[in-house]
């Protein structure tokens, strides 16, 4: 989620590949998808440049940070004695949460547009915290409610 | 912080076992919560590691950029079968979602203008906000330990949402201040102070 503001800026403002509603739609479907939820970049890629675009987007998104993860994972035990390793973990933890919250707010501005969407959001928020219902089902429920509430007559 | 013993990692796990395990997780983790599926598969079902090592890898994964799903695939795969293990684990984890989202993107391209589709997606988006907000609320409740953490979260949110500072800049600036705040030796004192303040409540 932390990536969302940057993604919005690049995909909509800089490159004009999607409109905001389109990005919101694709991002939301990505939440339902199995596996890493940022694989939604493949959907953006396919819209811009077909299957090749999907592969390029996925590779560009996952491989560079993957290499970093691989390298740090290998070095981790050697870094155990480095006192700043702990400092980095403790310091970055709240920053990561803050960035994710910021991304959620940015995404929320594009998707909570009235009292129906607010009600859906609050209901799913509560259901996630209080029940063990599969998140995918909650999102499908949102689709059903949305389909009924927003279908133009 | 838990320290795993190397002997808890089972040796002799084949590359294809790793691939199928991660493919299964990648194919069934609908709606997120991949970490739960990972733990179930790696610790409970396959017994490739114990909780201590799993949590240690999670703490590495959390510190790094990138999703836990893919970071954990790389870290676990590497521990089990080195570079090859990391690659096949990542590939297995990503393949189902890659196919799903590519197909979804194509279908969206053809049907994204239909009124019913738009109506449903508006509901999906609203539900997604609730889900994501709840997930981060849970994470925040568990890991925010005191005044400094709350301050850094607030600073990051204000800088991104209100002052429109780019995320990399926020990460470097607030991150640097936060790391410095938790610099060696001082970190323990601050934690003791936060602990004491919490005990007053």
Total count of helical runs of at least 4 residues of chain B: 8
Return the average pLDDT of chain A rounded to an integer: 93
What oligomeric assembly is this protein in?
Answer: heterodimer
Q: Report the helical percentage of chain A.
A: over 70%
> Largest interface here, residues on each chain?
A-B, 107 and 103 residues
Gross morphology of chain A is globular
- Beta fraction of the residues of chain B? under 5%
Poorly predicted tracts of residues of chain A: none
Shape of chain B: globular
What gap, in angstroms, lies between the N and C termini of chain B?
26 Å
What pattern of helices and strands is seen along the backbone of chain B?
HHHHHHHH
- Major sheet of chain A: none
What is the mean pLDDT of chain B?
A: 89
Category by helix and strand content of chain B = mainly alpha
Compute the number of helices of chain A. 6
Alpha-carbon Rg of chain B, integer: 20 Å
Order of helices and strands of chain A: HHHHHH
Structural class determined from secondary elements of chain A = mainly alpha
Write structural notes for this entry.
The complex is a heterodimer of chains A (153) and B (201). With 153 residues, chain A is mostly helical. Chain A has a domain at 4-83. Chain A contains 6 helices and no strands. Chain A has helices at 4-14, 20-32, 40-75, 83-111, 115-130, 135-150. The longest helix of chain A has 36 residues, at 40-75. Chain A is globular, with a radius of gyration of 18 Å. The relative contact order of chain A is 0.10. Chain B is mainly α and 201 residues long. Chain B has a domain at 1-111. Chain B is 78% helix and 0% strand. Chain B contains 8 helices and no strands. Chain B has helices at 15-28, 34-45, 51-63, 68-111, 115-143, 147-162, 167-181, 186-199. In chain B, helix 3 packs across helix 4. Chains A and B meet through helix 1, helix 2, helix 3, helix 4 and helix 5 of A and helix 1, helix 3, helix 4, helix 5 and helix 6 of B.
